[in-house]
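Reopening this ticket.

The earlier resolution said the output was attached, but the attachment link was broken on my side. Pasting everything inline this time so it's all in one place.
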Amino acid sequence: MKTFLNKFSLDRRTGLALALVGATALAVASQPLSAAPGDGPTEVPVEALMNQPELPDLIIGKVDAKVTVVEYASMTCGHCKQFHTKVLPELKTKYVDTGKVRFVFREFPLDPRAFAASMLARCAGGDKTLPMIAALFETQADWAYVKENPTPKLFEIAKQAGFTQESFDKCLTDQALLDKLTAIRTRAAETFGVNSTPSFYINGKKLTEPPTVEGFDKTLEPLLK
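Inline output:
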């Protein structure tokens, strides 16, 4: 599980935008989490879990599915990329597309780059948000861990979703959006005990199996009988 922070440099053109994200996000992400990875409650009230007022939940699957899976993930988390690129497609085919499971993606940014990526995905809006999240995970190695300035790569990805330089900079200086993402992360940590990514809750119960297809099968199948 990934819990460390990444540092990054800023280019001159969008330096002010990313500096805003970086200053606020570092203050939030550097706060010590309340427990070590693996600790925290194993079950949370479903009503409280599904009460997420700041931003619309990012959902795939039927509203009336028997099982709801909530994931908290960071765009800079390698384990999250592994899940989204290798595991989720099979789970989607097996459980989501068949109407058995509703999947909810929530942001838990671990560092400034993760905050910036989440902001851009949200700013893409509508049916572009989830595809942009997928694109950011697919290209994670190109912008999340590099020592050089990640801005050009992030802007390249954003342009594919229709961003201009102006809308790119405007998104990354959206203090209200940053505050909402911060609130989602803070509630997850303080109320639900999220302390590492990815973290999954299945009908309110924390997934204790490995986040593999086999691990989800073991947990989901008894609930779907």
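Reporter confirms the inline version is readable. The chain has ten helices and five strands. The domain at 15-220 is CATH 3.40.30.10 (Glutaredoxin).
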